[in-house]
Amino acid sequence: xxxxxxxxxxxxxxxxxxxxxxxxxxxxxxxxxxxxxxxxxxxxxxxxxxxxxxxxxxxxxxxxxxxxxxxxxxxxxxxxxxxxxxxxxxxxxxxxxxxxxxxxxxxxxxxxxxxxxxxxxxxxxxxxxxxxxxxxxxxxxxxxxxxxxxxxxxxxxxxxxxxxxxx
Amino acid sequence: xxxxxxxxxxxxxxxxxxxxxxxxxxxxxxxxxxxxxxxxxxxxxxxxxxxxxxxxxxxxxxxxxxxxxxxxxxxxxxxxxxxxxxxxxxxxxxxxxxxxxxxxxxxxxxxxxxxxxxxxxxxxxxxxxxxxxxxxxxxxxxxxxxxxxxxxxxxxxxxxxxxxxxxxxxxxxxxxxxxxxxxxxxxxxxxxxxxxxxxxxxxxxxxxxxxxxxxxxxxxxxxxxxxxxxxxxxxxxxxxxxxxxxxxxxxxxxxx
Lengths: 167, 256
Description:
- The complex is a heterodimer of chains A (167) and B (256).
- Chain A is an all-alpha fold.
- Chain A has 6 helices and no strands.
- Chain A starts with a helix and ends in a 15-residue tail after the last helix.
- Chain B has a 3-stranded antiparallel beta sheet with strand order 1-2-3, covered by helices on one side.
- Chain B has 10 helices and 3 strands.
């Protein structure tokens, strides 16, 4: 159990670095880098912990992305940058690269295999499954990140109060 | 309707077109482009209606208390990602409201923002390579596989930057990069470096994944900007296909 927890915590560090690399690639302002690292680690850890509890990858990703979305509102207020600057690099490590990659290989394979071939239907089933997983995980990411906006029904985070008004 | 007044509206319109096309080509979602342009126009006392497509921006600017209006269209430059610019423009839009910046000040700020430096090339290459190695670790790679992925991503991104400098088609540049990265990672599979070198091969191309087009695509679809969402999604799909193409070539060459 203890080693499992350590394994998951260690992966959090790598989630952070993956997001950091993309942050640099997207030329984010320097003041946001540390926050991006922390948010990506937090989102990734949420996803992995939930998956450890036998929750499906789509729901787990949704939870991770929602956490990133909520944190990005606070980060945006503190560091004065739009929330997408934080949220997009932070959720990129959760993008289903492996599923998308397998779906692509599957599509290419299908185009070169005769329908009568025995492996055709198996490849078709795998490709469909990988493609659908990719699609749903991406939707979970985008909706998760947008959660604060969708719930508060505000067009800009400047109008979401992050502290209660003093009365 | 006097000539001078129209000139003034035209000037404001040029600035709004600058803002809109810069946001659109640097990774902002359609909703954000519309909100930001509206916010700036409102602060300057104009009403604006926008038609935003992926590669062009059209707007009509009307004076709030007048009858003068003007329309124009501008082509949006090819899409890249520069969040420093997006963030800068967003901050500027709030300063326009709070500090009542004049049109000249705004234009000055825009030219300052567009000339802001990128991170040094070596820093970008190393950190993206580190991101590649992180992906490898997340997919269960160990030790030498991380090193292989680091080198492959570094080399792949270098090739992509060079291809873009030489003005290759952007999708082709991605295919080149994917080919270069998977040639490096494929070599490690051939030589049997590490326990499961397949991890290195599968993750060496992940630094190319079209994260911004795909997330923005879904964001646009949720916001109801369906057409732009579809365009972005297809763009992301072609990028994914280009990655697969480069990878397939490398795998064919090594006979994997």
